[in-house]
């Protein structure tokens, strides 16, 4: 097998660990094509182009002339109406039913997908909302929920936040999650750490342990640079120059790399400098 190109170089002090990124989950969904209804009814189902132009009659599809089609072969589709899809959810999708409560640490992190806040919709619902938020906070439990959103049945986890609101984490289904073993990867051999390597590694973690994590001090530096590039083009001025960071050098001697890391004043709290926002002159 050819050597894989690292996705990232994970740095631990001056210890450099090339790592490969693998998708932990995949979306499992049934995809429908948009078809021109009049042509589909004549036995000539044809996909609509981006501008809603039918590829058979070349006419633009009007409002109400679009149907969903599931491909079962070349130019062969099973037609499905939106009403038929809606009828699959007789509970009408608005209900988010709590299936039960459990400790948050029991859920595997790769199952978590997207997050959103939940809050009471009006004053009349505040007391019941506050009750649920309070009992979840005191019991330190999260709620497993099942709901339908945008025509898809989903599962999620609701947890109570200290600021009095709830947060919903949409989850992947277990069937969507990929195991690391299923990836096209390098086989990991069994290794044995030397006592000195382990002791120095533990010491390095201890010295780099943060008293408090504050993500507010981090900004999207790449977005700022892209903004600066765009503004320079708008203003017709030379684009800003940024120094490229080379890939870190690998050190074959792990003990030596750990010693150098400890000697680099890593005991001091790391300071993340916010990049200077470069603005083009207008």
Describe the structure.
The chain has 282 residues and is an alpha+beta fold. The protein contains six helices and ten strands; from the N terminus they run βββαββαββαβββααα. The strands form three sheets. Strands 6-8-9-10-7 form a five-stranded antiparallel sheet. A three-stranded antiparallel sheet has the order 3-4-5. A two-stranded antiparallel sheet has the order 1-2. Helix 4 runs parallel beside helix 6.
Short description:
The protein has 282 residues and is an alpha+beta fold. Helix content is 22%, strand content 22%.
Residue fraction in strands: 15-25%
Would you count the extended β strands for me? 10
Query: What's the alpha carbon Rg, rounded to whole Å?
Result: 27 Å
Major sheet size, sense and barrel closure: 5 strands, antiparallel
Distance between the amino and carboxyl termini? 53 Å
> Helical amount among residues, as a percent range?
10-25%
| Tally of alpha and pi helices | 6
How would you spell out the order of helices and strands? EEEHEEHEEHEEEHHH
Strand order of the largest sheet: 6-8-9-10-7
Average pLDDT level: 76
Counting helices, strands and paired strands, the structural category is alpha+beta
What's the shape?
extended
- Note poorly predicted spans: 269-282
List keywords for this structure.
disordered C terminus; alpha+beta; 10 strands; 22% helix; extended
Layout of secondary structure:
Blueprint: E1 8-12, E2 15-19, E3 33-36, H1 37-41, E4 66-73, E5 76-80, H2 82-86, E6 97-102, E7 112-118, H3 126-139, E8 142-149, E9 152-160, E10 166-171, H4 195-207, H5 221-234, H6 254-263
Antiparallel strand pairs: 1-2, 3-4, 4-5, 6-8, 7-10, 8-9, 9-10
């Amino acid at each position: 097998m050819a050597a894989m190109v690292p996705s990232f170089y994970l740095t631990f002090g001056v210890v450099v660990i090339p790592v490969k990124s693998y998708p932990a989950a995949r979306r499992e969904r049934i995809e429908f094509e948009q078809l021109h209804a009049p042509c589909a009814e004549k036995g000539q189902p044809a996909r609509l182009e981006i501008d809603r132009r039918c590829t058979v009659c070349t006419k633009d599809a009007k409002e109400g002339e679009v149907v969903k089609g599931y491909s079962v072969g070349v130019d062969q589709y099973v037609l499905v109406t939106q009403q038929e899809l809606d009828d699959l959810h007789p509970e009408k999708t608005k209900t988010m039913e709590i299936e039960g409560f459990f400790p948050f640490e029991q859920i595997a992190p790769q199952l978590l997908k997207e997050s959103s806040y939940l809050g009471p919709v009006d004053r009349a619902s505040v007391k019941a909302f506050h009750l649920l938020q309070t009992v979840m906070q005191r019991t330190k439990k999260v709620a497993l929920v099942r709901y339908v959103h945008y025509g898809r049945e989903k599962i999620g986890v609701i947890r109570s936040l200290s600021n009095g609101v709830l947060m919903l984490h949409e989850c992947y289904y277990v069937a969507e999650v990929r195991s690391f073993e299923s990836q096209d990867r390098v086989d990991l051999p069994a290794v044995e750490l030397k006592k000195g390597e382990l002791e120095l590694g533990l010491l390095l973690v201890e010295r780099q342990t943060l008293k408090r994590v504050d993500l507010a001090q981090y900004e999207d530096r790449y977005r700022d640079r892209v903004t600066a590039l765009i503004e320079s083009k708008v203003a017709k001025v030379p684009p800003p120059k940024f120094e490229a960071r080379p890939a870190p050098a690998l050190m074959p001697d792990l003990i030596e790399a750990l010693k150098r890391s400890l000697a680099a004043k890593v005991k001091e709290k790391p300071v993340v400098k916010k990049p200077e926002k470069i603005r083009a002159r207008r």
